[in-house]
Automatic annotation (TrEMBL):
It comes from the Bacteria. InterPro entries: Pilus_assmbl_Flp-typ_CpaB, RcpC_dom, SAF. It holds the Pfam family RcpC. The lineage of its organism: Bacteria, Pseudomonadati, Pseudomonadota, Gammaproteobacteria, Oceanospirillales. Residues 50-118 form the SAF domain. This is Flp pilus assembly protein CpaB.
Amino acid sequence: MKTPSVLLLAGTLLVAGSAAVLVRALLQPAPAPVVQVKDVAPPPPKPPQQAILVARHDLQPGAFLDMGAMQWQAVESSSSSASLLFFVKGQDDAREVMGATLRQPIKAGEAISRRDVVKPGEPGFIAAVIRPGYRAISVPTSAVASNSGLISTGDRVDVILSLERDQGEASGPGQVPFLASQTLLQDIRVLALNNVAMSELQLSGEQAEPSDSRRYSRYDTVTLEVLPREAEQLAVAKEVGTLQLVVRGRREAPLQGQSDPSQQRLAVTTLPQATQVYQSRQPSSSIRLFRGEAVEERLQ
């Protein structure tokens, strides 16, 4: 075979082989894409949560705390010292705050801080529960004057001034001692007995039991909530005689308005108005009538 024919045949075979390889490559499916697996970082853990006491509604200083005024609410715990600042559920009992009051206003939803809470018996409790415009004054008392310890904080009382007997003794024989009493103030709230102050919410629970020894303790002083003018009146009255406390019933309607002691002049009860025992002891004068030998004596 001639050389040109051989070269032509070899070229033809080469072209045919190349075409076959190209057709085969075009007919084959495309290879699946390579999926690269990347390491996905896990989501960050949720911050720990804990429930703390918050105000259920707006609270004002002097308002007593109960479960109607506060509630537990879950918040993020960003500090390990939260239990030192707030009341934490599981660590604190809500009953510990029952009957306490606040030093400053707290809006609804705000956390109740420990420093804002004043518990009964702690310094500042009396100043926190006094109503605006009123004052607290302590007056001396005794077991008899305070109804043998049956008065509790939160009770409403009337204050009666009784003249001391040694100051009201009669100046002469046969004369009635000048003893008198007068109701000075009415519907006054008792804030504390001695140095023990309790809220009205605690009274319904703790002091309801007869076995509570604090109900029968001896009271030397009673702290009352009065107006400034009434405080001046009590300051003078306690130097004159004995101040008696008369308990008012809880079902009795409170007196409306702020009564001015200068305009409230109640009647004074003197000894002859209280009893007639001295009237029977008063000497009576007599007149003797002489009719001849007969003598007649008549009492005036």
